[in-house]
Amino acid sequence: MSACPCGSQLDHDDCCGPIIGGKPAATAELLMRSRYTAYVNAEFDHIEATHAPEVQGDFNRSSAEAMAVDAKWMGLEIRGTTAGGPDDEAGTVEFVTRFKRGGESYVHHELGRFRRDAGRWVYVDGDINPKPETRHVEKVGRNDPCPCGSGKKYKKCCAA
Q: Helix, strand, or coil here: 148?
């Protein structure tokens, strides 16, 4: 019994172990967690097999192995998901991994895109260091019409 490296607080055999062993992940997040665990445990067959078919040729296994084997993995943080549930066909997972190599600390922040392929979740691609969506707020002047629709000036209505 050992804690799963993905940070779920579950035993590895009850969390990522079955997915790495070939059981389909129920959600995009669970696939992401299993891929992180596969990097930690140097299980590169799982990482390679869970790429979408159109990007499998882009996966440089020897480079991934060299990077992962020399790394001391410090943790996975899931920042958020969009769709990617048991009934969805696509989804995103925003995640941060931390690791050390050669005495240096590194952070990998990504918004990963996932989709179902033949009923199984696969990693498609991702945006490194994603920027948060910019919010635009319109400022209402004191003498402008009130945005509530009353017909009064803002200063005599909602700003009062």
A: coil
Q: Report the predicted TM-score, pTM, of the whole model to 2 decimal places.
A: 0.81
DSSP for 95-140?
EEEEEEETTEEEEEEEEEEEEEETTEEEEEEEEESPPPPPP--PPP
Residue 49 near residue 57, CB atoms below 8 Å = no
For tokens 């769709």, what's the residue? 83
Q: What is the pLDDT along the chain (160 residues), one digit of tens a residue?
A: 689 999 999 999 999 999 999 999 999 999 999 999 999 999 999 999 999 999 999 999 999 999 888 899 999 999 999 999 999 999 999 999 999 999 999 999 999 999 999 999 999 999 999 887 777 778 888 899 998 989 999 989 998 8
Element holding 73 (H helix, E strand)? strand 72-83
